[in-house]
Amino acid sequence: MTTTINISKSELSSRLISVSKIITPKPALPIMSCFLFKVENRVLHISAADHSGRINTTIDNVTTEDEISICFEAKILLDALSSLPEQPIEFLINENLNTTIKYNGGKFELMGKSSEEFPVENNIPDATSLSIPVVTFLDGINKTSFCVADDDLRPVMNGIYIELVDNTINYVASDGHKLALATYEFPFTRSHSFILPSKIASILRKVISHKEETIDLLIGSNNVRFAFGTYIIVARLIEGNYPNYRSVIPQNNDKILTIGTSALKSALSRVMVFSNQSSNLVKFELSNDRIELSAQDIDFSTAANETVTCEYNNDSMAIGFKGHFLTELISAIPSSDLQMSFSDQSKATLITPVDDKSTDKLTYLLMPMMLND
To answer: Which residues form the DNA polymerase III beta sliding clamp C-terminal domain (predicted)?
Structure first.
């Protein structure tokens, strides 16, 4: 008996590309290099998985009278379909899982695999359910994900800490050098928190469509489930307790600088070119309503300095930053002006947007670098 499935090439390809984002180059199990195809009631369910989680999506109203479960090597299928123009394509699958994919003027032949070894989706018992506006969810991830650590010795730092408390939702990420905290008003009276792996956060950023209004979450003790549009993503949470991030955010930084975001970013990008290649140190010298940025690389006899006007009325001071880190933080500031607050040259600096209209709050923390002079 041969199973026949007719489907749109472009619709299938777009779903496969999204689902494939979870597949790793060298999976722990060979079957995890495959897509799972499952047809039930003329609905095609497509899944992929790795050790961190699973992605499922569906395509409704495929043309078939059959039901089947089969796995295909993801890379082969993606490569085969990538150059085909939009057209109906036909899958012919025999009882030995030998598969022919017919298209206008040609065909592909490949061997399917049994789906018996493909990981089964786990239930999430005693889960907390909530719905978050997509705009809020994506904004929180976008403003924090670049601060996530990559540290095998401290796995809890390798994800975004999402905290629901006091009718707010907080997104927190830190690598020990910089910290991001994005806070949004959110009507949820219970307290809950979890650590979302950075890989899953990256996949969510790429797959969630801005056309969706909300994303539905089921949060368990070990797993979290995201549902939006035709997609379901189940992720294994990072185990452990996230550090008390509030304790490292200074409350008494009394030296306040206000400056145009684009002006600072542009000056920093120019001066940073001449910084030491290994340290990437950029020196800030603050004085009355001006800031001088400077950098040098003694090994190559290069140097640069630039003065930018700002609002600053406090004691003169000098402080050093890693240029790339500061650029990342400034680039994420959504307002035309930003504020930097300092205590002294050895303690954390806070960077915040200057925007009185927004009820959301965004705070970045950056540890300074030691100056030699």
So the answer is: 246-369
